[in-house]
Design goal:
Blueprint (H helix, E strand, L loop, with lengths): L3 E4 L2 E4 L4 E7 L8 E7 L6 E6 L6 E3 L7 E6 L4 E6 L8 E8 L10 E2 L3 E6 L1
Amino acid sequence: QVQLVESGGGLVQAGGSLRLSCAASERTFSTYSMGWFRQAPGKERERVATVSWSGGRTYYADSVKGRFTISRDNAKNTMYLQMNSLKPEDTAVYYCAACKTGVRCSQPDYWGQGTRVTVSS
């Protein structure tokens, strides 16, 4: 079973930056497409960004495009989400996910426990 562990969440002021990390337990990590999802209080979980197994294809939600960057280091079994120009609206619990199939990881097979990001105004 693939285990995913997020880290890097915390409290940051609006306009600041934060980098989230997702460490995978499986060496087959490199064969999965990966993604970041988030869920804010009172809202449904939404897809934030995804990256293909090779890192060559990415997807971003309109709300974060131009501010967030997703990347992965398969040698380290780790995925990252660099978040810049953070807004209070970005406050949410961020979840790491992995997909066996699908370029944009729309139907994740594995989930992390989440890391909380709070952006103050």
